[in-house]
Known about the structure:
It contains 6 helices and no strands. The protein is an all-alpha fold.
Amino acid sequence: MVRRPPRGRRAALTPTSRPQQRQRRRQQRMNRYGAQAQRHWQTYLPNRYAALIAEGTDLNSFFSTLGDQALAQIEDLTRQLAGPDPTGEGYLDKLGRLNEARMAAEEQVLPELILIDPETNETSPPGTQSPPPRTDQDDWIPMVEDPTDPRWQEIAEQEAAMNADSEPPARS
């Protein structure tokens, strides 16, 4: 037989056991915008991310706060962009209108708060650097089909052999 404590009596709690659990849970929660910001900053803004670490900033709370701020701005802007419900609007029409408003709001807010452009002094991770933009267009040679080119003739004959219906183009 299992002996239970009488009703009304509960196990004694230490003064800090539950509040610490709540606080720990609250610290661990980060919305998708905060997590996205943390990944983006680690990858594309390593100097800023390292500065946060060097300052002793609690990264979880920093990015949680940033994510909450982005979420609040996106929700406000979504309501403004969606506007009032038109009369006679069906479920799917409303869903489309609200989704479109949310995407437009994210498109405006995320580059400002979450997906900040990499700074010029930031270094990109290896393998992700793109080649510098070309400034001299004089050395650019367009690709043009030339039926008189022997390689073009060879490819045309191979294609004709694969497609028995067609004949290879005549040589000039």
